[in-house]
Amino acid sequence: MRGMEGLPSGTVTFVFTDIEGSTGLLKQLGDAYADVLSEHRRIVRETFARLNGVEIDTQGDAFFFAFARARDAVEAAVEAQRAHATAAWPGDTTVRVRMGLHTGEPALGSEGYLGLDVVRAARICTTARGGNVLLSETTRALVGSSLPEGVSVFPLGQRHLKDIDQPEPVYELTIEGVETTAEVEPEPAAKPEPHAEFRDRLKASIQERVDRELLAAFGDAEKEASSEPADDAAVDELAGRTADLGEKISARVEAALRARGIPPSSD
Asked: Quick check: 133 pLDDT over 90?
């Protein structure tokens, strides 16, 4: 990994790339895989450098680049994918690269970039399939409609990325002339809890009944208060009864559900 000198600062777009199924290609091609790796590295380095990308690190067939402008990063990724799609590979093999982009405002330390922005970009890359260019929400927003010719963008929905607490909205670029291994499918939406609608109606019904009981109880208390002085203990008792109300309602709901053969809530 290179040092701090010459690294983009402020708002930075990170790009991670690697070859999909590189181990399989190595087994298939043997010594000829060295030619694949050499050409892959040439394409990425020349394309990204021409669009002001700074190489941060490389390992095997994987690259880590930084760009000062999100639009340059997207254009570089598109051009590199098209170059891979049209290159003549040994043994008529198909070499597909996956790419992930994320834009943030990382800190710079003595060892380079710090923070979760780097991790987020890397995880988006590992979510991709061969031929994909995936963008974070931040990168997509910065690029807006200024996409290279023959390129469109569509949302894949929320993705749960390793080591990232919150789900990340991810977008895919569709590039004319570049085929992908397979579509990246959105994560399935969480299934609604069975019987949830019935549970809500039952809870509302019990709540209404309890409210009527409380209203009657407080009415009696008001009558007593007109002839007796206030008592701190009575106030505490009322507060305690109110605090326990939610638990009592839930217990009554669950008991009614069990009587109907409906399993308890998963909450």
From this structure: yes
Instruction: Of 154, 156, 159, give the one whose Cα is nearest residue 173.
Output: 154
Q: What is the pTM of this model?
A: 0.68
The span from the CA of 69 to the CA of 116, in Å, is 19
pLDDT band at 18 (very low <50, low <70, confident <90, very high): very high
Report H helices in the chain.
22-29, 33-50, 70-86, 116-127, 137-143, 196-225, 232-259
* Average pLDDT score over the chain: 80
C-alpha separations of 116 from 10, 18, 166 in Å = 15, 20, 12
Amino acid at 205: S
Q: What are phi and psi of 128, to 5 degrees?
A: -75, 165
